[in-house]
Amino acid sequence: MQRATKIVATIGPASSDRETLTRMIKAGVNVVRLNFSHGKAQDHIDRATLVREVADACGVKVAIMADLQGPKIRVGKFENGKINLENGDKFILDADCTMGNQERVGLDYKALPRDLRGDDVLLLNDGLIVLVVERVLGNEIHTVVKIGGELSNNKGINRQGGGLSAPALTAKDMDDIKTAMSFQADYVAVSFPKNATDMEMARQLGNVAAEPYGHKPLMIAKIERAEAIPLLQEILDASDGIMVARGDLAVEVGNAAVPGLQKRMIKMARASNKLTITATQMMESMIVNAVPTRAEVSDVANAVLDGTDAVMTSAETASGKYPVETVEAMSAICLAAEKSEDCKLDADFLNLQFTRVDQSIAYGALFTAHHLRVKAIAALTESGSTALWMSRHNIDVPIFAITPNVATRQKAALFRNVRTFELAQSTDTEVVLKGVQDLLLEQGVVQKGDLIVVTWGEPIGQVGGTNALKILKVGEY
Questions:
Q1: Total Cβ atoms within 10 A of residue 468
Q2: Most CB atoms closer than 10 Å: which of 323, 343, 371, 404?
Q3: 3-state SS assignment for residue 109
Q4: How far is the first Cα of the chain from the last one, in angstroms, to the nearest whole number?
Q5: Active site residue ranges
Q6: What digits encode the pLDDT tens for the residues 449-466?
């Protein structure tokens, strides 16, 4: 059975050797995430090179996603590395402080005092520490500790309800985009976008940096700011997909609001023909344990049933003790969850108006495959758009994107229920259709006598929109 939901795995010190990465890809990794919050440019270049080599050796195409750090707002460093704050303590966040102590600490985002007013609530270290702002005096933010705990170097700061003015793209991010394009990263994940303009700027920077390589990356908006939620549709329209980044988002909007937002975001993205990745703490306990908790199993399964394209690991595979086991467990959970999915194609297409010929062909292929009970859908595609549109709807028929374009095969590694194959181009339709039949037979996904649906663009062999559909009986060519 073809697993529909894809797995995005972050690689780091625990998974950057050839043997571990090989085992992870064989276990089911479809997309490798390079986290630009850690490491140097050369580290990412070396890891990207290794990913491409290992994927080729395994005979699969794996996408690479460069995840930008963004304006992570953090406290500075402490004289002794950390302090302990008690409820009721007075504590100062001081933009001019160079080394922190029990009374105050510096800020890496010097403009933070300008964003705050009395009674604002600040959440530090992913919400484990809560400070209430009493007043702002120049570059000093005077606070009272509402919930204390250990505070160590460089922990993050969020304001409850959002609204901090830090730009989505920092100077570091701009340099990192250039680095990512030097190895033609398939996806760029943009941290903390507030609106469509942030994503449009990121796309422009990515396209300019990628132009010398004849490449165009796809842009993923990480939804982690409270102010991004009301503008979700415009952000979707300016992006190729979104990441439900539940960590910082939960700190800003509250943990209880996140599950509902996750469902809403995935539903909106699918309706807009955009991709979705569900991330943060999905298998968190597997950083140190060889098996996940029941709650984590339910969390991953729930994201699958929501219709996410991919589920993502972070520290579990980057620095955890069991990176391969994490991928194996996640893959098994996805497969089990997909068996209980409902196919509601008829309802999906009810009252739906098609505005493009290629989109009509894509949906026609789904409808035909569902009602004829065919064994496979083969989309001959140059850009991958036809396969993407098909993948927005649940269907228990595997979709195969067949293309000579390597970049398209890599990008499609993230598309739900889509597997890619390479097929040489030809201007002879009959030759191509026989090639599709023989390829699927060779791969063992069909047998003689099975029905398959094939879509392509006429004239065949030229770049253009999909405008043809044919039902084939395997063995007739």
A1: 15
A2: 323
A3: coil
A4: 26
A5: 33, 74, 222, 280
A6: 999 999 999 877 677 788
Question: pLDDT digits over 110-166, tens only?
Answer: 999 999 999 999 999 989 999 999 999 999 999 999 999 999 998 999 999 998 888
Within 13 A of 470's CA, how many CA atoms are on the CB side?
17
Q: Which residue has the tokens 């001081």?
A: 94
- Higher pLDDT residue, 423 or 32? 32
> What is the residue whose two structure tokens read 């569900």?
278
Let me know the angle formed at the C-alpha of 120 by 115 and 124, rounded to the nearest 5 degrees: 90
Instruction: Report the 10 Å Cβ neighbour count for 343.
Output: 14
Short-list 276, 275, 299, 273, CA closest to 286? 299
φ/ψ (deg, to 5) at 373: 55, 50
CA distance 65 to 47: 12
**What is the C-alpha separation between 291 and 287, in angstroms, rounded?**
10
Angle among Cα 183, 208, 39 to the nearest 5 degrees reads: 40
For 460, phi then psi, to 5°, come to -70, 145
Count CB neighbours of 100 within 10 A.
Answer: 26
Task: Give the pTM.
Answer: 0.93
